[in-house]
Amino acid sequence: MKNRKISILAALLVAALLLAACPQPVPVAETAVEAPASDAAVQGGVWVEGSSADATILNPILASDSASFDVLGWFFPSLLGQDPFSGAIVPTEMAESWDVSEDGLIWTFHLQDGVMWSDGEQVTADDFKFTYDAIASDLVETPRKANLDNIASIDVLDLLTIQVTYEEVKCDALNNLGLGWLPSHLYAEDFSDVMDSPLNEEPAVSAGPFIFNDWIRDDNATVLRNETYWKGAPNMDGWIYKIVPDAGARLAQLQTGELDLIGVQPEQLTTVQLNPDLNLHKFQDDGYSYIGLNQANPENPQAGQDEDGNLVEQDPHPILSDLAVRQAIAHALDYDTIIENVYLGQGYQIAANVLPAVGWAHDPSLEPYAFDTGRAAQILDDAGWTDSDGDGVRECNGCATAEAGASLTIRLQTNAGNTTREDLGALVQDQLNSIGFDIQFEAIEFGTLVGELLGQTFDMVIIGWTGLGTDPNDDSFWHSKFDTPGSGFNFVSYQNARIDELLEQAVSVPGCAAEDRAPFYQEIQKIIHDDIPYVFVTGSVGNTGYSKKFNGTDPGPWSFYHNVETWSLAQ
Questions:
Q1: Rounded to the nearest 5°, which phi and psi values hold at 49?
Q2: Model pLDDT for residues 425-437, shown as the tens digit of each residue
Q3: pTM given for the model
Q4: What domains does the chain contain, in order, with CATH numbers?
Q5: What angle do CA 418, 472, 453 make, to 5 degrees?
Q6: CA distances from residue 321 to 21, 48, 55, 109, 476 in whole angstroms, order as listed
Q7: Cα 86 from chain centre
Q8: Are 534 and 344 in contact (CB under 8 A)?
Q9: What are the backbone angles phi and psi of residue 523, rounded to the nearest 5°?
């Protein structure tokens, strides 16, 4: 499944383009209607997608950023499909059906027959088991360890039947089974070559619509039509992922036809809408933009748990571990101005981590932090952060976490090339500095930023999550067991024993009824709102500008390329 789930970074780490203020942000596509394709499909043509960031690795269990998944998603089959319009999990990929035991612990998946890797080897249940066993291996460092949560065993009943047994009921079980499968016949049985395999940069086989052709770092990746694709070989000859760091250059190349698709920045919307040769796909995204606040000392990253699952007391961040500082930051930002001026109205303020789109779990009673610089300044005063020398920057004068005299200096980073985030960073810097912070803002290369995030060596970061899906379980962001320097998505080192408990309870409710799970997620939202490991800036919308080169495009809010094999070159 070529899905949008993280992205880092879930996204991790992608540009989260944001939506107009809307009280009910439900994924809905708003796309120009295209002329229907002619009966006779026209062969040929190449589609070129523009991106600010390059992929980092082309292995589905090692990748942690959306740029990598944009490329590797063409090659590796997955167990489950996703409806491109509703987001629902559907049997459109390797699993053509599945059964669940009465106690909810045993899931049996029946696979499509006749799906082949491009080298002629059959895709089987062995590939699924190998992939998830590799994730479990101590030899493999992967941010996907969370996908094994609560799995007791994975058994191959025959080449086309997989049985997954859980230790306890796991209400979001299917969401963890959607990773791409590795071609097990090309790896050592003991997983010893997974981390440094040349396949991580040059996938040798594919079971998707395209096969790997070439990857020139920081320039482009190219793929070619897979003639043996089980859903039918695409009509187009190939697809190119072209790196164009500057947003203005991406828009210019979309207009000239050098690019066929870009993520549109808010200030670019009108230009795309007025161009008769372009379409605009606008959808309310299942993501949000935020400022991540590292709770731990970036000079001494530590795991959140020891080998026995006990909490490890963190070496605290000398400034951001102070709740008063985090409260001051949350109150010092003018969210209305940010959404209107930076996102050009393409956003809506949120209070916590569960989006209104997940209506059954969202807590609408939580109020987002209000812009109040007087209150922010008073909080800092009361906490012992005062400007004793009159230079405009506060120092620790009786504060709880830093050494006496230490200035309120914090690094703020984001990824270069995303003009929206760069503009937000400059505005955040100005707004926080106006009440006595000394914010050192910089936009850095995307891969470098990902390394600092996963390595937990940053102070504050402007970033976003996208592709969060239809289930509210986001334990990989908050649970202490995913505070793992080098790979974990809890890179802000958030540690709260009650949150750990609630996250575990919320996915193990007998029967998994929404009304029974909701109270757990509502308490989680309240705690995260009060603890402020993230400053939630805005809920997201996506805006994609694309050419009319091909007929048959039918983008949904959950997938742009879901029917790419049917596209036909426009005459």
A1: -100, 135
A2: 999 999 999 999 9
A3: 0.67
A4: 285-542 (3.10.105.10)
A5: 40
A6: 32, 44, 33, 45, 20
A7: 18
A8: no
A9: -70, -40
